[in-house]
Design brief:
- The structure holds two protein chains of two kinds.
- By secondary structure, chain A is an all-alpha fold.
- Chain B is an alpha/beta fold.
- Chain B has a single domain, classed as 3-Layer(aba) Sandwich (Rossmann fold).
- In chain B, strand 4 and strand 5 form a beta hairpin.
- The radius of gyration of chain B is 18 Å and the shape is globular.
- Classes of the chains: A mainly alpha, B alpha/beta.
- The interface between A and B is large, with 37 and 45 residues.
């Protein structure tokens, strides 16, 4: 039974990529290529990092190398699977169906944990393989060490899988009981994302600091991460007893997590509707059609963590970037002054204002709130279609929400850019108006793409948000535009110098304005017809 | 109230509705019966303006669905067979939204919502998120939303599916009240006993074609509606063969 359940789950995961698509195999190949690419990038990164470490540390501290490999493997695996554990174990759509069958809940749980363990292995390989290669390439191959390293790679993910399962259980309990599930998910997601960005941007600094004081770090590590120290010593020295202790501990943790979660599996996986009932008086309030439609759009956006995180994350990042710019305004000003004085480049304040305006626009292109908004109507589209609402009013509400949400953070970023640059009046006008034009362009173009490529048949809202052509076809051209402007700027203005920077930037801006105009005219002429034809 | 003239709808090669004509007057309660895939839902959706059709014409209170869909939609309400509602809203906010769309005044909306919520025993759940509702509760909410703007014509697809006996009784009462007040109802159902007891008109569809329609007495004669339906199905199957 366990084997069948694992197979079933694997089929379900695979079908998310290939189901109902004519080019399912093609997508699978594309997915595999993407995975190989990501693996290659991470592999190279870790190979270089651990190679440097292997060359630097003293022989007395060789165990520290393996301890760090274990710790990093554990950290990365846990980081990327905590949320997966929650959805895979406790929120799988077939949980209730399977629980109603004569299958022991623990068997279902074990099949889920096995899948999660598989994912842990895949992630830990990203660290273990390049770290192992870097070590043995520099210190020479020793059979005993290699054998222990391979066995260790099998047992270590048991710990990260167990911890991820327990955190997943905690998240499932918290979100099931929380009145505002979206808010809780958002807080956890943003916290995870913040940790990721902090570590990512400071990785170089942390590694340098670690290598400068690795002896004291290693000595300290024996107190707070003794398990990884034992793991390191077990392989490096090699000490079979210590190594066996670690593997036994990993196995014990996994078994303990299994039994612990098994006790509450039935309760947690079927507790979706245990939230407290809202109490109070029935309060009804009437409003205009446009306000009602806008409120509906806003409610949809704010009630979905996945929608907000994928299509509105740029709003938070814009505010963070604006604050960072204000704090580091002097440094940015020095950098801009350097560009202004750069020999042969002769960039005016107006040119710099245009560049910053395009940079702000690019930054805000990440918010495609309208691109999945029609697809998100899904099976509820009948409500709008059967009601006496002009299609244009529906589309206008979707666009209005996008502009209302994006305009203020974009304006804040523009102001911060202006504060750093301190341009003339014309520069200020461009800095403030160009990004707002891109906000509208993004909204209009997103709607246009969604009308052309709607995806109304879905069970999980992640599909129209993460796997739809409309989102991809909105974001890609917006980013490609910025990339082309940058390439054009470098080739035509900096290298060739046959075209004044101002002229080039104004041409680029004009192209974007034409793009907006064409999209808006298309939406005005065809939008309502396309919307009314949906589902027919 | 509802006049369907020569309605035809194709899905690719398949003819879902084949030259169907039907007339329902104000005050009439008309059941639309037929086997699965006969074309009932397609016809209902075409009447509501959700589904475009290939031929024929549909008039709601004399207004063409094709020429002025918005004017038609203002006077009709639709309750689908599977009430997929906005799960991100609470029931009261959903009703507020629907009332805003139809321009129902504050006083009227409160009176109607309270009346129908009490009748369907949903008054204590109006503040809850729709995502936490059962199928039956969603069905009741969809019905309250449909009645909240006092439509002239109510179009319902399998309105009794998922309802408990008490709610079924209440819905029948609501349907009677609606027709007594001059409104009309066109609904599909598989429950022939309900159709027989509740309706004054019946239309039977088979493979997209209307094979019998008229008053209940005209259609069933001395037999039961079930017998007539089975007989017509068999006759028609014989003709098709």
């Amino acid at each position: 039974m366990l084997g069948k359940l694992i197979k079933l789950r694997l089929q379900s995961i695979l079908s998310r990529t290939t189901a109902r698509r004519k080019n399912g195999k093609g997508m699978l190949v594309l997915f595999a290529v993407l995975m190989v690419y990501c693996g290659g990038v991470f592999g190279f990164l870790f190979y270089e990092m651990f190679g440097f470490m292997a060359e630097t540390i003293d022989p007395d501290y060789h165990w520290f190398y393996f301890a760090m490999v274990g710790l990093l493997s554990f950290g990365i695996s846990f980081f990327f699977t905590a949320f997966t554990a929650k959805s895979e174990l406790f929120e799988a759509t077939d949980n209730e169906l399977l629980l109603s069958m004569p299958i022991r809940p623990r068997t279902i749980l074990l099949s889920r944990m096995a899948i999660l363990l598989g994912i842990e292995y895949l992630i830990s390989l990203l660290v273990m393989v390049p770290a192992g290669a870097a070590w043995f390439a520099r210190t020479g191959l020793r059979a005993a060490q290699l054998a222990l390293y391979i066995v260790g790679s099998v047992f270590l993910p048991l710990i990260s899988a167990s911890v991820a399962c327990l955190v997943g259980w905690l998240l499932a309990r918290l979100t099931a009981r929380a009145r505002n599930k979206t808010l809780v998910t958002m807080i956890f997601s943003l916290t995870f994302l913040a940790v990721y960005f902090v570590v990512y941007f400071n990785a170089q600094k942390y590694i340098a600091a670690l290598m400068a004081h690795y002896q004291s770090v290693a000595d300290g590590m024996t107190n707070w991460a003794f398990l990884f120290c034992w793991y390191g010593k077990g392989i490096a020295e090699p000490d079979l007893l210590l190594f066996l202790l670690v593997t036994a501990f990993a196995l014990a943790v996994f078994i303990a997590a299994f039994f612990l979660l098994g006790k509450g599996f039935l309760k947690v996986s079927s507790s979706e509707n245990v939230r407290k009932r809202r109490t109070g008086k029935l309060e009804l309030r009437s409003s205009k059609l446009s306000s009602a439609l806008l409120r509906r759009e806003f409610k949809r956006f704010t009630s979905s963590a996945i929608y907000m995180l994928n299509c509105g994350l740029g709003l938070i990042l814009a505010v963070i970037a604006a604050v960072a710019l204000l704090i580091k305004a002097d440094e940015v000003r020095d950098l801009l002054a350097l560009l202004e004085r750069y020999p042969g480049l002769a960039l005016s304040k107006l040119d710099l204002a245009l560049i910053l305006a395009l940079l702000t626009s690019f930054f805000c292109s990440m918010n495609s709130i309208t691109a999945p908004s029609i697809s998100l109507e899904g099976k509820t589209l009948w409500i709008l279609r059967s009601a006496p609402i002009p299609a244009r009013a529906i589309l206008a509400a979707k666009l209005k929400l996008h502009v209302l949400l994006c305009a203020a953070p974009t304006l804040l970023l523009s102001l911060a850019m202006g504060f750093a640059l301190r341009p003339e009046l014309a520069g200020w006008i461009l800095l403030l108006s160009v990004p707002q034009m891109f906000v509208v362009l993004n909204g209009v173009f997103g709607l246009m793409m969604n009308l052309c490529f709607p995806k109304l048949e879905w069970k999980n809202e992640a599909i129209p948000i993460k796997q739809s052509a409309s989102v991809l076809l909105t974001m890609l051209p917006m980013m490609a535009y910025s990339l082309l402007v940058i390439i054009g700027f470098v080739v035509l203005v900096i290298l060739n110098q046959s075209l004044p920077a101002t002229t080039f930037l104004l041409i680029a801006l004009g192209a974007a304005a034409v793009w907006l105009l064409i999209s808006a005219v298309w939406l005005w002429k065809n939008g309502a017809r396309k919307f009314n034809g949906l589902g027919s | 109230m509802l006049r369907i003239n020569d309605l035809t709808k194709h899905y690719g090669e398949k003819c879902a509705v084949d030259h169907l004509s039907l007339h329902i007057r104000p005050g009439e309660l008309c059941a639309f019966i037929g086997h699965n895939g006969a074309g009932k839902t397609t016809t209902l959706k075409a009447c509501v303006g959700i589904l475009d059709f290939d031929g024929g014409e549909i008039y709601i209170d004399g207004i063409s669905v094709r020429k002025d869909p918005l004017a038609c939609k203002k006077i009709i309400a639709y309750v689908p067979d599977n009430p997929d509602l906005y799960e991100f809203m609470t029931a009261d906010k959903y009703l507020d939204f629907i009332c805003d769309v139809y321009g129902v005044g504050a006083q009227e909306r409160r009176e109607r919502i309270e009346k129908y919520a009490n009748m369907l025993e949903l008054e204590n759940d109006l503040l809850q998120p729709i995502g936490s509702f059962s199928h039956g509760m969603k069905q009741k909410l969809a019905l309250i939303a449909a009645l909240a703007h006092a439509p002239k014509l109510l179009i319902m697809d399998e309105p009794f599916v998922g309802l408990d006996p008490k709610a079924t009784h209440a819905v029948k009462q609501v349907m009677h009240e609606h027709c007594s007040a001059g409104g009309a109802i066109f609904f599909s159902t598989h429950v022939l006993e309900v159709a027989e007891k509740l309706c004054d008109r019946v239309a039977i569809i088979k493979d997209g074609r209307l094979i019998r329609s008229g008053t209940m007495e005209e259609v069933r004669g001395d037999a039961s509606l079930e017998d007539v339906f089975m007989e017509l199905e068999e006759d028609h199957a014989g003709q098709t063969d």
